[in-house]
Every structure is written in structure tokens, then in C-alpha cells.
Amino acid sequence: MKYSFELKTDAPAEKIWEHYEDVNKWFKWEDDLEEISLKDKFKQGTVGSMTLEGQPPMDFLLVSVITGKSFTDKTTIPKLGDIYFSHEIITENAQNSIKHSVEFVPADRRPSIEDLDFISQIFADVPASVFSLIKAANETV
């Protein structure tokens, strides 16, 4: 089960990428972020931890990093499943777009209608974060 939001931008791809690769810049585009850290460099296989407002700290894994283009992180919720957050910079005809997706993969079962409500709540902040990311990337141009 997956939701995506995509928005065109004039922000340069390298400025957008700076706001992905430096997790300290995530505070500029993730409104509910309280703490974040990585145990190594921003690369595939690196583990990190984040705390969102009203939530306990959550560990995540960078499952895919294509420098300058995209990254996906995974958070595992014990006995519930995995949540994948994908972030892409898409360049087409000299125009950049930012695409953020949230995918939920239940543990040991097929998705249910109840999962729809769960993933919808997680996705609810994604469009605003894309707008915030564009604003932050344009401020550094």
C-alpha cells in the first residue's frame, strides 16, 4: 500500500539533495521532527534514529541511496510491519520535481482496510514537507 506526492520546482537538484544528505537540515522541512541522528555517513546500510513530536524514538535504515537522485529509508514497527519513505529528485526536460512516497508493508499478512487509515495518517504531512523542502532549497540558492 503506497501513497505518493510529486511537485515541480525551480530549486536546483543539488540544493534539494543537500537537504536530504545532511540530516540536520531535515528540521527545515520536517515540521514535527524533534531529534535525528545517523550512526555513519548518508549511504545505503546506515542506521539512524529520529524522534517525531508525540512519538517515541524510532530507528530507521537507509535501504537505498543514489547520490543526487533518491533515497529510501525503512522503519520497522515490531509485529505490525515496515514503513518505507522514498524521496526522489526527478529531472525531466530541465525541470526538477520532488516526489515523496510512503509505503506500508504489513508483517506476515496481506494489507487490510485498517491499514489504509494507518498509512493515510502517516502520509498526511508529506505534501506540506515537500513544499517546505522546496522553500528551504530555494533559500540556499
Architecture overview:
With 141 residues, the chain is of the alpha+beta class. The protein has one domain (2-139): START domain (Alpha-D-Glucose-1,6-Bisphosphate, Chain A, domain 4, 2-Layer Sandwich). Helix content is 24%, strand content 43%. The protein contains three helices and seven strands; from the N terminus they run βαββββββαα. The protein has a seven-stranded antiparallel sheet. The longest helix has 14 residues, at 126-139.
User: Total number of β-strand segments?
Assistant: 7
What's the CATH topology name? Alpha-D-Glucose-1,6-Bisphosphate, Chain A, domain 4
Fourth-level CATH superfamily: START domain
Question: Which structural class do you get from the secondary structure elements?
Answer: alpha+beta
CATH-derived architecture: 2-Layer Sandwich
Strand content: 35-45%
Subunit organisation of the chains: single chain
Record the strand order, biggest sheet. 1-7-6-5-4-3-2
What gap, in angstroms, lies between the N and C termini? 36 Å
Q: Any idea of the CATH class?
A: Alpha Beta
Mean pLDDT over all positions: 95
| Count of alpha and pi helical runs | 3
Q: What string gives the helices and strands in order?
A: EHEEEEEEHH
What topology emerges from the helices and strands here?
Blueprint: E1 2-9, H1 13-21, E2 33-38, E3 47-52, E4 58-66, E5 70-77, E6 81-92, E7 95-106, H2 113-123, H3 126-139
Antiparallel strand pairs: 1-7, 2-3, 3-4, 4-5, 5-6, 6-7
Write a short abstract of this structure:
With 141 residues, this protein is α+β, with helices and mostly antiparallel strands. Helix content is 24%, strand content 43%.
